């Protein structure tokens, strides 16, 4: 991190102690009643229990025990060697963890290879849109999801938020990798490791004073409802925006894209009864779990600055107003305000008129449009961001934490 953004982070970090105490006094954010029916899920049936009260009963006790036994450093060393989907688990893992992982690495019986292949082709062809939407859209939206922002802020990874925030956006992008779920790919490994990290965080965060003082009524973080909130901020949001922009998405492509995300939710430990079976079901669930909880949080604003700092590092901050305007256009002004994005009325108007034209041109639907030069600059900045920030070509290095962010 350069000295500018480090200073900025320290300043924002310093403000958090006081703000945390304030947040503790304010009521928890409203969440609507869970009425989404399991009949709309990939399971087609289920008990219909509110996922707000469901965590991960297979992973959580195992990871809690691994942490309490002091096994995390040894396990992390062994797990570094496990990188490919088809690779046997490393020798020497504790028996309980090995048993869990052998089970967790199994793909769901309903996974369809043809759809997964098609989804990968689709994500590749639409790489720039998908990448920009994950990185700037979903990545920044996550900072308006208070529970996620706080969990990330107060957990170990919060100490290096740039690295941390890059990883969730990268995971979205890696899901679209051509090899993702093929034997030589690494998405099964990444998903199982992430599931274990989330289980570790559930054990650790309740011990964090910073988290406990700001978590409201939630006593254990990362419920299945929370995971689906993030899922919608990635999958549902990206598909919706691509369609709104006029990106050509056939029904087969959109089904395939949904499928790769359904499989990924399952691999992250979400019960099949909460995974939407169709985009209609996904949109309905998103409306219920994501829309009402978007809100400002001090931790989220700190994360926003880190993410925008990453973009600024690519071009010394030249395009920051442009990126701010593009993100406000993508997320909507309300969310933009929530996360503290500066208003850019002129640029925002320009982008909302010209961006769909540029997309139509890239999709081969119209001849070269007369768009202001600044739009080409924007497109180039997005391309650079996607290439450098997201597509690093290496699987994300994921370690199980055994402590929270040092206070
Ligand atoms: C860790 C992705 C949902 C909080 C991770 C990591 C990934 C990831 C890839 C590993 C990164 C690392 O090693 O630093 C996802 C995806 C989600 C999801 C794809 C949903 C589809 C959530 C939710 C929360 C959350 C809902 C909180 C409400 C965290 C935290 C860590 C983590 C606190 C650990 C950071 C650390 O201390 O290292 N997640 N996540 N995640 N995630 Fe998630």
Largest sheet: none
Number of folding domains? 1
- Helices, by number, come to 18
Could you tell me which ligands this complex binds, including any ions or cofactors? protoporphyrin IX containing FE
Question: Which parts are unreliable, with pLDDT below 50 for 5 consecutive residues or more?
Answer: 1-28
Between the first and last Cα atoms, what is the distance in angstroms? 20 Å
- The radius of gyration computed from the alpha-carbon positions, rounded to a whole number of angstroms, is 21 Å
Overall structural class, as computed from helix and strand content, comes to mainly alpha
Strand tally:
0
**Percent helix range:** 55-70%
Topology (elements, then pairings):
Layout: H1 3-25, H2 59-68, H3 72-79, H4 95-104, H5 113-125, H6 127-141, H7 146-154, H8 161-175, H9 187-204, H10 209-214, H11 224-245, H12 251-267, H13 279-289, H14 298-315, H15 320-331, H16 333-338, H17 345-362, H18 373-390
Helix pairs in contact: 1-14, 2-9, 5-12, 6-8, 6-11, 6-15, 6-18, 8-14, 11-12, 11-13, 14-18, 15-17
This protein binds protoporphyrin IX containing FE.
Enzyme class: oxidoreductase
Protein name: Oxygenase MpaB family protein
EC number: 1.-.-.-
Offer a few descriptive terms.
globular; 18 helices; disordered N terminus; binds protoporphyrin IX containing FE; mainly alpha; 0% strand; single chain; 407 residues
Give a short synopsis of this structure.
The protein is mainly alpha-helical and 407 residues long. The protein contains 18 helices and no strands.
């Amino acid at each position: 991190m350069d000295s500018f953004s480090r200073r900025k982070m320290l300043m924002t970090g310093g403000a958090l102690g006081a703000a945390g105490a304030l947040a503790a006094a304010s009521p928890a954010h409203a969440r609507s009643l869970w009425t989404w029916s399991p009949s709309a899920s990939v399971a087609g049936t289920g008990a219909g229990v509110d996922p707000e009260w469901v965590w991960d009963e297979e992973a959580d006790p195992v990871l809690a025990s691994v942490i309490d036994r002091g096994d995390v450093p040894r396990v992390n060393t062994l797990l570094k060697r496990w990188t490919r989907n088809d690779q046997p688990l490393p020798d020497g893992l504790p028996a309980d963890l090995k048993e869990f992982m052998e089970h967790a690495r199994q793909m769901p019986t309903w996974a369809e290879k043809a759809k997964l292949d098609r989804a990968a082709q689709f994500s590749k062809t639409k790489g720039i849109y998908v990448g920009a939407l994950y990185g700037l859209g979903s990545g920044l939206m996550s900072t308006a999801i208070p529970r996620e922002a706080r969990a990330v802020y107060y957990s170990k990874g919060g100490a290096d938020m740039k690295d941390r925030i890059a990883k969730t956006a990268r995971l979205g992008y890696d899901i679209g990798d051509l090899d993702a779920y093929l034997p030589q790919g690494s998405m099964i490994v990444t998903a199982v490791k992430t599931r274990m990290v989330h289980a570790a965080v559930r054990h650790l965060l309740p011990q964090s004073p910073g988290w406990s003082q700001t978590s409201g009524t939630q006593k254990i973080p990362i419920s299945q409802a929370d995971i689906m909130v993030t899922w919608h901020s990635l999958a549902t949001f990206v598909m919706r925006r691509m369609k709104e922009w006029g990106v050509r998405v056939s029904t087969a492509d959109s089904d395939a894209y949904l499928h790769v995300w359904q499989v990924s939710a399952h691999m992250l430990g979400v019960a099949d009864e909460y995974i939407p079976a169709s985009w209609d079901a996904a949109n309905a669930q998103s409306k219920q779990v994501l829309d009402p909880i978007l809100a400002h949080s001090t931790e989220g604003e700190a994360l926003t600055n880190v993410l925008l700092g990453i973009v600024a590092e690519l071009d010394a901050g030249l395009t920051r107003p442009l990126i701010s305007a593009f993100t406000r256009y993508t997320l909507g002004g309300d969310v933009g305000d929530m996360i503290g994005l500066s208003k850019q009325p002129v640029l925002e108007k320009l982008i909302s008129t010209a961006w769909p034209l540029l997309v139509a041109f890239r999709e081969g639907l119209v001849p070269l449009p007369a768009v202001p030069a600044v739009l080409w600059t924007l497109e180039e900045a997005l391309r650079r961001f996607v290439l450098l920030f997201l597509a690093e070509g290496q699987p994300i290095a994921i370690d199980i934490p055994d402590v929270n962010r040092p206070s």
